[in-house]
TrEMBL record:
The chain crosses the membrane at residues 23-46, 52-70, 79-99, 123-141, 153-172, 192-208, 228-245, 251-268, 275-296, 352-373, 394-418, 424-446. Residues 453-474 are annotated as: Disordered. InterPro entries: FtsW/RodA. PANTHER family: CELL CYCLE PROTEIN, PEPTIDOGLYCAN GLYCOSYLTRANSFERASE RODA. The keyword Signal does not apply. Its main location: membrane. It is found in: Membrane. It is a multi-pass membrane protein. It comes from Streptomyces katrae. This is FtsW/RodA/SpoVE family cell cycle protein. It comes from the Bacteria. Keywords: Cell shape, Membrane, Transmembrane, Transmembrane helix.
Length: 474
């Protein structure tokens, strides 16, 4: 006598979500800025700053809400993106508050504008709005692939965002750069959001055209040159970046858009020739505009020798003070709240906030911050490699490339490696547009990483293939 038993295969083992790892890292990301805040207060005023507990609790609540949203709606997302962005954002608020305590900056604001108001509370408010927008993106964007449907609409939207600052009555000329619009008493920098919107267009366009763009017509000096008719897209983007540079005097946005397109083009086609052509066109365009546009020319002059025009040019004075800040910091820095980067002036908490890091935290602090930024970029590239769809791969690499370029041009500008660009350090600098746009960027990378790391559903069981007979002796 025997017993026949029907058995079926077991479904795929579920991959770990890493949400507990994210929560543990998030705790450190909240505690470190609180200690930094206390250190600044003790260094400047000799006592703990008021509201330390309230600030810590508020920041912890915001970070906790972000974690709960990711745990619920992006269960398999990369566990490092949210904690690193939270840490950078928290330290950015501390740096801004430290500069708010400067009597030099307070007196400068009173002389220039008649009054002084602290920027740190506004930055904390923008952080709350940014995390709310972060949650909305994860709630609404269930699948990043739906954005592919809006390829050409996103191109039109990006052009509108770039045109807005040059419209009379709407755009605002701030210290020579026309990159702001004023709405209801608030200033918005549309270019921060345009980099995300235009990345959608680049990803959708290159996904369709990559085979044609990868074709080569002839070989020259070891490079496979593209066909002449395929140069149209890169010429169009190059022209658009030059128009941004000419009409808005915005070197940073121009470099960012063109550089992001070249990076995505190289990834899509795997042709080194596109990188070489892109670099040549970028250098050529920047050289021509730098020699003709007065605002850009002043920044190039300040870059070449800031101390030659230190007493006659505001740009030279800012760059000179920034270089001296980095030099004064040494290896370990002067300590939280004990530097003099406020001598830079009005842009100390925006364009030049990284100079405060260099002086008060030294080379060690600079390398730590660059490592944190590098980790975000690395996780973005890892997400692109893991993505299962070509649109997601290109979109993730485009966002990561744009983030990397922004870090390079800002850090390089304040250190004197390249001319100043007027862009802001992500998560650190004062400004609502930057923090809002960069939290949206992090949300999209989290969504793509969740889709990439989510285990594939187990196939439906087949009675014919999965049923087995187990014969047991009676």
């Amino acid at each position: 006598m025997s017993v026949v038993t029907n058995t079926t295969t077991i479904g795929a083992i579920e991959a770990p979500s890493r949400r507990n790892t994210e929560l543990l890292l998030l705790a450190f990301a909240v505690v470190i800025p609180i200690f930094a805040y206390a250190s600044v207060g003790l260094a400047i005023h000799g006592e703990l700053p008021p509201g330390t507990l309230l600030y810590g609790l508020g920041f912890a609540v915001l970070a906790g809400i972000g974690h709960l949203v990711v745990r619920r709606y992006a269960k398999y997302a990369d566990p490092l993106l949210l904690p690193i962005a939270t840490l950078l954002n928290g330290l950015g608020v501390v740096l801004i508050w430290r500069l708010d305590q400067s009597e030099r900056l307070q007196n400068l604001a009173k002389r220039s504008f008649g009054t002084f108001s602290e920027s740190a509370p506004r930055q904390m408010m923008y952080t709350g709005l940014a995390l709310a927008l972060f949650a909305v993106v994860l709630l609404v964007l269930k699948d990043h692939r739906v954005l592919q449907r809006f390829t050409y609409i996103s191109m039109a939207g990006a052009l509108v965002l770039l045109i807005l600052p040059v419209i009379p009555g709407l755009g605002a000329d701030v210290f020579g750069a026309k990159i702001w619009i004023s709405v209801g008493g608030f200033s918005i920098q549309p270019g921060e959001f345009a980099k995300i919107v235009i990345a959608i267009f680049f990803a959708g366009y290159l996904m369709v055209k990559r085979d044609a763009l990868a074709l080569a017509s002839r070989r020259f000096m070891g490079l496979y040159l593209p066909r002449g008719r395929d140069l149209g897209p890169i010429l169009m983007i190059w022209a658009m970046s030059l128009l941004v540079l000419v009409f808005e005097n915005d070197l940073g946005t121009s470099l960012l858009f063109f550089g992001m397109f070249v990076i995505m083009l190289y990834v899509a086609t795997e042709r080194t020739s596109w990188i070489v052509i892109g670099l040549l066109m970028s250098v050529g365009g920047a050289t021509v505009v730098g020699a003709t546009a007065s605002h850009v020319k002043a920044r190039v002059t300040a870059w070449l020798d800031p101390f030659a025009c230190y007493s006659t040019s505001g740009a030279c004075e800012q760059v000179g003070q920034s270089i001296m800040s980095f030099g004064s910091g040494g290896v370990l820095g002067t300590g939280w709240g004990q530097g003099n980067s406020d001598l830079i002036g009005f842009a100390a908490n925006s364009d030049f906030i990284f100079s405060t890091v260099g002086e008060e935290l030294g080379l060690t602090g600079v390398m730590a911050f660059l490592l944190l930024y590098g980790l975000i970029i690395e996780r973005g590239v890892r997400t692109a490699l893991a993505a299962r769809d070509p649109f997601g791969k290109l979109f993730a690499i485009g966002l990561s490339g744009a983030f990397a370029l922004q870090i390079f041009v800002v850090a390089g500008g304040v250190m004197g490696l390249i001319p100043l660009t007027g862009m802001t350090m992500p998560f650190l600098a004062s400004g609502g547009s930057s923090v809002l746009a960069n939290w949206v960027l992090i949300a999209i990378l989290i969504r793509i990483s969740d889709t990439a790391r989510r285990p594939a559903p187990a196939p439906a069981p087949s009675p014919d293939s999965e049923m087995t007979q187990v014969v047991r002796p009676s």
